[in-house]
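Record type: monomer structure entry
Structure origin: computed from sequence
Chain ID: A
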Amino acid sequence: MKEGLIPSILCPHVAGSKAYEVIDGIEVYRFRYAPERYESLGYGNFLPHEKCSSRIGVLIQYCFNSILIASMLFFMFLSLSRLRKRKNAELIFSNWAFPAGLVSAVYRQISGVPSVLKVYGTDLVFLKRFKLGSLAKYILNKHDSVIAISDYTKDYALSFGADPDKISVFPVGSNYPIIHSPVSLDNFKRKLCLSGRPVIFTVHRLIPLKGTSFLIKAMSKIVSVHPDVLLVIGGEGPERNMLESLTISNHLEYNVLFTGLVPNEELPLFYEACDVYVIPSITDKWGNAEGLGMPALEAMSYGKPVVGFDSGGPGLTITDGLNGFKVPEKDWEAMADKIILLLSDPVLRNKIGVTGKSIFNDEYRWNKVGQRYAEVLNNAVKG
């Protein structure tokens, strides 16, 4: 592999997954931590606040999860130790400050094997919410280097007393854009009835943090100027029924399309087909905010202007009039005004799209981001 990095991935087992497989030439090992029916913490299921809006419900779920978390931490540490020795690995790279970051921090202290931690923001909010600031500081400072996906995430890490000299800021990279033939794009538009209509696109988990309800409210104003506009919402989540009811109550059935989960191979077609991409993420009542918002950046790779709230990572990556527009958080009317402006002015829309694409190519493509990762990882190994 490039830069001499040969990765093996260790992750939690989940019902239906394999204990071992090779994906794109990379070995993936999944460790068991409970009877299969109870292995429910991995792959988007770790944070109960994404599923339950009730504080009591979240607390109950966290209490239940605490038993599973203890088991996960133990078996993750055990599996990490075994795999590291088996592969004679020279470096541990962990995603998320908790739980993986805690395990790698302890392992680093015991074994002396260099380690790098990548933090996203939500993981740090989790530690703050439960008043685990001292634990967060321990996790962050026991690693040789910390990668934050945005300046917003870095600031959160620094608030715990993390060593600023250890923190690098660069995003998750992407190999986008993947361009399809005009025929494929036309067939896709016909299949979803997108042809001849202004299209707004957003894709994310349907949870409170993503602010989808504010975008639907904005549509009630947008359709007064562009009656044929279509908002395409990709993704699934616990808020879907509520969002569909909100769409109906605002008489927007003709103007809002819920696609459900978007297959990876179709995602580029959605980006290509839209005129404007919107990232309506907010700071939720638990204090979580979007760390970066990769889909918005991927939309930029297709030359699409982005509109979002001034919250979290997107509030730092969107520059008004340059690669899109940002508006005050939860101000759906202001969001509607910016979307209307872009839909009404194709020259402006194209100008902003071209600039956004240039920014993406300079800062977010894997051929550049990957070099920065490799530099941090190799420096950690060299000490």
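Annotation 1: Residues 12 and 31 are 5 Å apart (CA to CA).
Annotation 2: The mean pLDDT is 91.
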